[in-house]
Amino acid sequence: MLSEDLGFDPDELRARYRAERDRRIRPDGSAQYRDVTGEFGFYADDPHADPHFNREALHDEVDVVVIGGGLGGLLAAARLRQAGVGSIRVVEKGGDFGGTWYWNRYPGLHCDIESYVYMPLLDELGHVPAWKYAPGEDIRRHARAVGEHFDLYRDACFQTAVTGLSWDEDAARWIVSTDRGDRMRARYVVMSNGTLDRPKLPGIPGIDTFRGHTFHTSRWDYGYTGGDANGNLSGLADKRVALIGTGATAIQVVPHLGRDAQQLYVFQRTPSTVDYRANRPTDDEWAASLRPGWQRERMENFLGIVSGDETDEDLVADAWTGSARLLRKMTAGQDRGSLTPEERERAEELLDFRKMNQIRARVDEIVQDPETAELLKPWYRYACKRPTFSDEYLQTFNRPNVTLVDTADHGGVERVTENAIVVGDREYEVDCIIFATGFQVAMSDMITGRLPVHGRGGTHLLQHWSRGPRTLHGFYCNGFPNLFTMGAVQNAASVNFAHVLDEQASHIAAVVAEAGKRGARWVEPSEEAVDAWVSALGENAEELHRFYLECTPGYYNNEGKPHPRRGFAKGATAFHALLRDWRRNGMDDVMVMPG
Ligand code: NDP
């Protein structure tokens, strides 16, 4: 197709994307960030838990220890309970269930996926959320309700971090050690210890010299700002506030800071894509019409659409599904399977250009100052960064007390002094710095080695994985019996991660139930099964690698230096079908019977 027919020039856009990427790539890559330990440890402290909490150490035995009380851990425990497992102990660092929804309580916090498909176990609890996109507070309350409903509080250990796992071969039990001196024994361990739990700070020179107030968005300090998750931050009325970062968190926080702070400076390195939101209260009549099974049907429909499946029905009908359906429109009338990979890539790229043109046009429609509008336009492919949705963020830059400071040409904020932030030749004096700089993504304690796992013969899991993870379907590995991992390693992820976690939880529960029925001594895949799965994951790795190489830097592509990814390329719905099929035909392969 010629550029005149398209209304834009693909070559020009391609070149602009590349130039914008290049000016953001930093030679230090991921090393630009610093860990929140030592003198920076206060950024990760728990402001919600009782600092004087104490309890006796536990030296007992349970059927299952679940590490992590976020949505993944809760789902695993709930599905195991439904499968008839007796004693389930969730061990959680925070003071309650909720995971990311426990830590994050910043003003404006909402889930950006529709609540009816995101909030788990709605059918089971007979609950319909009050909003299409739920406030974080409602999700945290729901997490607690799941804990109550499945009687998980009785055995849970909060404010407790697991410090080691080791397999006792003779007893066929895991020994679980914690930072409270526990030494519990468990037949099974499920690891669901998070992808977004450790806050990340940029290593900005002088950051430790700042004398004003400072905190990370995931540890919001309402004692300083006043107000609550609904806003009304009265403590900021006479404060000059700096917000660093413009990712999915900042998009939700900025409207509140803009409304309530005397002066707000937003320090941006890369603008997010900001699509429309259109949140609305739940329609009572619709809620009353729902019949058992409604949530499963809706979740499957959403996952199918965002995974690119062919379907005419769009139950969620929002900006997520709208973008995904646009692609099908472009190739409508063609059998997508008959396109060559190059033709498909080209069609997808054109769609992407069109989508991003819409996103950029929206900035011009909303932001009055043309210079600010220009800075707020994202120049990269839609899937390079987490898309965001807001009907208030861009509008905030029309306020006279809000200033956008672009830092792209300086690799980010350059320097912090005792009372100011420095970018280029300007110094911005502020009373408070808030870091919306994200998390150490997918760096669970197991992956970093903070939680050592010793399997059969004392083998360390990270040693076993020294040339990359080795699992069957992402769940279990040879030499580490009765250990299940949840998350995004070697399986299929999707934007509705709660749904993905539910499928994983149901799968684990089905395997544990079957092992119980058969009296299996343990569950463990053969090395051959693992080999076969790891090789199968290589498919399409090249194509994905090329895509991320062209992306603007961020955590999706290891700050512009993408690792070759080996994930399940056919998408989440195909992966779930594969698991269902495996449960019917493949279980024998992992069950080790008493002999
Ligand atoms: P992100 O990692 O997405 O964003 C961090 C921001 O900090 C980026 O804008 C980054 O810029 C900026 N930054 C980092 N270092 C510097 C620096 N030195 N100077 C200036 N800016 C800097 O974190 P978020 O907390 O926004 O989001 C994390 C993830 O959490 C999301 O991707 C999403 O998956 C999830 N989330 C989900 C929500 C939901 O509703 N489901 C809501 C909020 C978050 P740059 O892009 O240039 O690196």
Automatic annotation (TrEMBL):
Family indicated by similarity: Belongs to the FAD-binding monooxygenase family.
Species in which this protein is naturally found: Lentzea rhizosphaerae
FAD/NAD(P)-binding domain location: 63-269
Name of the protein: Flavin-containing monooxygenase
Alphabetical list of InterPro entries matching this protein: FAD-binding_Monooxygenases, FAD/NAD-bd_sf, FAD/NAD-binding_dom
Key words of the record: FAD, Flavoprotein, Monooxygenase, NADP, Oxidoreductase
Any GO molecular function: monooxygenase activity
Organism superkingdom: Bacteria
Keyword NADP: yes
